[in-house]
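Researcher: We are triaging several targets before committing to wet-lab work. For this one, the compound of interest is pyridoxal-5'-phosphate. I'm pasting the protein sequence and the ligand SMILES. What I need is the predicted three-dimensional arrangement of the protein with the ligand bound, expressed as structure tokens, so it can go straight into our comparison scripts without reformatting.
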Amino acid sequence: MSVTPVLEADALRRQDPELADILLGELDRQSTTLQLVAAENFTSPAVLAALGSPLANKYAEGYPGARYHGGCEIVDVAERLAVERAKALFGAEHANVQSHSGSSAVLAAYAALLRPGDTVLAMGLHFGGHLTHGSPANFSGRWFDFVGYGVEAESGLIDREQVRTLARTRRPKAIVCGSISYPRHLDYAFFREVADEVGAFLIADAAHPIGLVAGGAAPSPVPYADIVCATTHKVLRGPRGGMLLCGSELAERVDRAVFPFTQGGAQMHSIAAKAVAFGEAATPAFAGYAHQVVANARVLAEGLAREGLVVITGGTDTHLLVVDPAPFGLDGRAARGRLAAAGIVLDCCALPHGDARGLRLGTAALTTQGMGEAEMTHLAGLLARVLRDGGDGRRTREEVRDLAGRFPPYPH
Ligand SMILES: *Cc1c(COP(=O)(O)O)cnc(C)c1O
């Protein structure tokens, strides 16, 4: 199979060399720099093939067997397959695989359970809550009354007493657990208990850890949450997109919240690619991958701590970690810029306390490339060298290029 069906298409190169160059330029960037953006990964050639397939041409509003368009008999099979694979993978009674993104999945979860003006308790944005957890710039903050919980100053761990107290005093209609930067496992049983005590729904936004859940490397929210929303493109390594999981009693509400409430036609090429990714995620090889992602993140965290960076919560249980580069006299923004110049690509993120920004690193993409603990230790040293003294720009960039070159994401 061709590595990237789109890139290999002679037709594209002949018809639109300008755009073909852009695609090849991005492939080159991804192959010669190190991707530590915690939300990113490298999909398989099979997932890319499904995305670049003629299913992209098909209009399919509605659900399998009940479409508003003709000619859906084949894409119906693809969607049923994706749904069955998702249900089996996560042990869920119901799955909806149509959400165009993680944010649309969250929107659909709110639409299924809430009315405008309802109170929702979620992790505060400053502590790692997502845009869809009440940002004033997002529909969530505009249409709902969000109350934010945070983390303890000392440990960086979720402040359970605060969660409990805010739930009791504010009586939210729903509690959201899930974050863009929390490096530890969530205690879903705890959130369920608090939600039950105050009669709230529990929504788990598992956009980040869902791939670890699939591989058995993180606890599953499915037995605890009323609705689990997730992305399919982070650790899970599928196409960009979203999904929802729930019990049978909420199945119809969730489906109607996705279509017709928040979306029109389903993207059948993406749904087919999700089916491919769920199939891959059900293999022993993916379980090995998920555990290696976590082992790599732990070694990277230990290495960075040894180099003198402050590791928030003292380490990680997952694919991501958050560090404070302050001991190097840098804030996250300056550190990110320096690292980018050396070919180490990552994000800034809020730190739990104070206004300075930190760095968020993830190991999902590097692990897909085949890197292991030895490479993580090497990388921790490289990273610290760049932060310490700018890292002798050219030499570090060459070392990064060498390391990346030994683990090509799409070997020819
Ligand atoms: C990534 C993420 C999302 C949104 O996913 P998009 O596909 O970017 O819309 C939602 N919630 C959390 C917690 C996330 O990490």
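Researcher: Any quick observations?
Model: Residues 39, 101-103, 106, 130, 132, 178-180, 205, 207-208, 231 surround pyridoxal-5'-phosphate (CB under 6 Å).
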